[in-house]
Amino acid sequence: MPLCEMEPPTFALSSGHHPPHHRPVLCETVVELLAPQSGRVFVDCTLGLGGHALSLLPRLTPGRLIGLDADPHALDVARARLVEFAPHVHFVHANFRELPQVLSSLGVERVQGVLADLGMSSFQVEAPERGFSFLREGPLDMRMDPTQPRTAAEIVARWPERDLADLLANCGEERWARRIARRIAETRRRAPIRTTTDLAQLIAETVPGGGRGMRIHPATRTFQALRMAVNDEASSLDELLRVLPDVLAPGGRAAIITFHSLEDRAVKRAFQQGRRDGQYHLLTRKPMRPSEQELAENPRSRSAKVRAVERLA
Fold this sequence. Notes:
The protein is of the alpha/beta class. It folds into two domains: 27-123 and 233-311, Vaccinia Virus protein VP39 (Rossmann fold, 3-Layer(aba) Sandwich), CATH 3.40.50; 149-230, DNA polymerase, domain 1 (Orthogonal Bundle). Helices cover 42% and strands 14% of the residues. A seven-stranded mixed β-sheet has the order 3-2-1-4-5-7-6, sandwiched between helices. Helix 2 links the parallel strand 1 (41-44) and strand 2. Helix 8 crosses helix 9 (196-206).
């Protein structure tokens, strides 16, 4: 098997949808950093469609991979893709903030490897009914775990204007946060903002010049902030970083892939603090990025960064 399998087969889901070809980002780098070995126990905190797992498992077997994901639909796909490794994989529907509880339920005290890929898969982005993309009309949902109650529509409809503005500024790093929040509040008094394209159009009409000349779509940062709030992403990452030293065995390694500066800063701070506390050896002094070849093959990897540490005794 090649170091990283890049063109997986497509599997049908019970809903009738077919996941697109999925390219796990920084896959070769992750395998090199985590250095999986036979008989070890690893955790993939964001199993997704199993792209990274397909490259880790041949090196772990007869060890174990514990695969967590908040998205039950993604777990269905991963089960199908990883069927040949089924005896060595535990599939768990859970947020990675629950990692200690998951390990305890499986009778595992510490593990030799932890991976978390904080990005979204094409499978999620390209499904209009999930509401993650402003390029496809769908409901304002944005839940990674559809069993959770809060949606983006609820936030857009109910949060006070000031809270919305703070969210866009803090989680989206949106320059026009106050203006966008004001426009949302004015618009929803007349009629509900129901769809992703309705919200994206509202934002484009609100920012100066309609976003012309911007490097990214004017709705990008607002959608990021809403998704983070719906899924409580910042708090979940903080909790994972807090418990990571306790779940890693001495010599165990962890790698975290981030996609925006807020995530990367949180990982950087936690890893550097762990080094100062004598918990970690930094495997990456600076974040590692995709190669030119990977960028050419998978433009969506352009924002990806990975940092890694090894647990000291």
